[in-house]
Structure formats: structure tokens, C-alpha cells
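Data card: per-record layout.
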Amino acid sequence: MMKEFFGFGGYQRAPEGFLSWQHLLFVSLLVGVMIALAAWLGLKNRREPLPQKNKVLMAAAISIDVIEIFKIVLFCIRSDDPMRWTLELPLFLCSIQLITLPLAAFSKGRVKEAALDFVFVFGMLGALLGTYGAGNNYGAYPVLCVDNVVSGITHTISGFGSLYIGISGMASMKKRNIPITCLILTAFCITAYIVNPLVDGNYMFLVRGDGTPYDILYNLLGGNAVLYPISVVLLFFLYIAAFYGVFALCQKRKKRG
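The structure for this 257-residue chain is written out next.
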């Protein structure tokens, strides 16, 4: 039973399938817990000083990195390929939170402010794409296996961080942080674009959609090797603009109310 859960020797069970009821039920339970915890702790600490609010983020940051390190070590142990780790680099949109969430929790000053905003902007998006939209995982592995359970937990920790930052009032969303957010994203995209052909990877989904919602864009562009990755990156920037725009609009209405 445990061997089958951890995937040693390969999974014998057939995948239930992407968007199967098992997939949707499992991720909905995770997302439900994520929302409930973020709402409870965010509202509880909303009027508390920053150090008190920050303790929750510290716990989330430590948890996401410890779980991810466990996953990488496990995947390397069960694989015959000594270079298996090259496919586990933190170069997906969701993986950026492995770096930015600890920065948001443990850094100070402008770096902390920018990291908080980055997690706030992208944490929830990554959580939804990595759970409901993860056709690459749920189409390939059984729902209740270490690949999907660990992925689901780390993605919902990212979403938790985003919601908690927003609800507890830790996000500044200052315009001066937009270039930093864009710079972080651009650096990861460029790195992923360089690394992908070296390790035959698909970081940031810049090569293909792999069963995720990115497949829609990939198919629309006929898999064009130039237009597709450029369009993926442009969508990220459009999302940043839209998020800041909606946030500013909500703030204006709040002040008028």
C-alpha cells in the first residue's frame, strides 16, 4: 500500500483522469481547507502588529520548502536517472513561491514589501492552476499518490499565503513594486527558457501545455516555437496589470463607501 502510494516501481493503478470526480473532489477539499485557514487566521490577526501576522507566514514558508525538498529527494531516490533533479528545479510559476514566500516571511524593508505583493498577486493563481488546472499531473498519476498529494499541498500553501496576506492587510500593492514583480517574473522566464532545452524540460510551460490550460494557447498558435512562449509571458504581464487594476478599483470603491 505504502509502496504504491510513493510510486516505487511505478503506479499500478490507472489514473482516474483530469477533471474526474476524484480529481475535483480531492482538490476542492484542499482548496476548502486553504480558504478556511486563510480566512480564520487572516481575520484573527488583521488588527495585530506585523510581527504577529508574520508568524503565520513563517510557518507557511517553512512548510512549503520542507515539503518540496522532501518531494525532490523522494523523486531522486525512486528514479534510476541520476539527473532526475534537473526536472525538479523551482522554475514553474507556482515554484517561484518557494523563494518569494520565504522572502515575504523572513526579509525586511523593500524586499519584504515587494515579496509580499508578489505572493499576493501570484499565489492564488498558482494554487488554482496547480490544482484544478493540473492536467499534467492528474492525467498521468492516480489522485491519491505522493505526486499529486504533495503537489496539491504545496500549491494550496501558495494560495493560502496569497489569501492570508490579503485578508490580514499585509499587502501594500504600491505602484513602485510593480517593476520588481515584473523583474522577478522576467528573470524566472528567461532562466526557464534557457534551461528547458538543456534538460529537455518544460519549465514555466514555455515549450508546450502538457495537458494544462496552456494547451488552449498552444493549440491556437499551432505550437509555434516563437509565438507560444512569447504569448505565455505576455499573459503573465497582462495578469499583473489586471490584478493591480482590479485591486485599485476595489480600493477606490472602498474609500467612497
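Known properties of this structure: The two ends are 57 Å apart (CA to CA). The chain has a mean pLDDT of 94.

See the next section for split statistics.
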